[in-house]
Amino acid sequence: MFEAFPFDSAPKYLLRDRDRIYGQEFRNQIAVMNMNEVLSTPHSPWQRAYVERVIGSIRRECLDHVIIANEDRCDARYVRNFSYYHRSRLHLALGKDSPDSRSVQSIGSVNAFPEVGGLHHRYERIA
Asked: Is 81 exposed, middle or buried (0-12, 13-18, 19+ CB in 10 A)?
């Protein structure tokens, strides 16, 4: 986390849950960076709804289907899933479009292109 931004541009607040993984060393580093910790209420996952949704999506759509050997492989898998999520995955809230919108293709045969190591596919028409 501490490599995510330089010390002079750190956000003012850090919203986090009460997981014990955040030890005293973590809290000391946050204090050095002049960040204020805002803790969620105990046993209240609905307070972190967006974060819980993203973590759940990553787990269900990407990590539950493979065995991850090390951190680098996990990072690579996540990057591919992130690209798929924005370029190809349909979102109901966007009218069944992806965040990086594509034009509608109506001519040609439908071809499948594997994404995320074959876990998902993107379909396009090739004339």
From this structure: buried
Kindly report the CA angle at 68 between 65 and 71, in degrees rounded to 5?
140
pLDDT of residue 7: 60
Listed in sequence order, the DSSP H helices in 1-127 are 24-32, 49-61, 71-87
With tokens 């919203």, the residue in question is: 15
Cα–Cα distance for residue pair 71/91, rounded to 1 Å: 29
Extract long-range pairs of 10-15: CB within 8 Å, 24+ residues apart.
10/34, 10/35, 11/35, 12/36, 13/37, 13/38, 14/38, 15/40, 15/48
**Distance set, CA 100 to CA 83, 88, 115 (Å):** 10, 8, 16
Nearest to 66 by CA among 119, 10, 105, 6: 119
Q: How far apart are CA 18 and CA 38, in angstroms?
A: 10
User: With a cut of 50, which residues of the chain have pLDDT below it?
Assistant: 1
Q: How many CB atoms lie within 10 A of CB 87?
A: 14
Domain boundaries, the chain: 1-39, 40-126
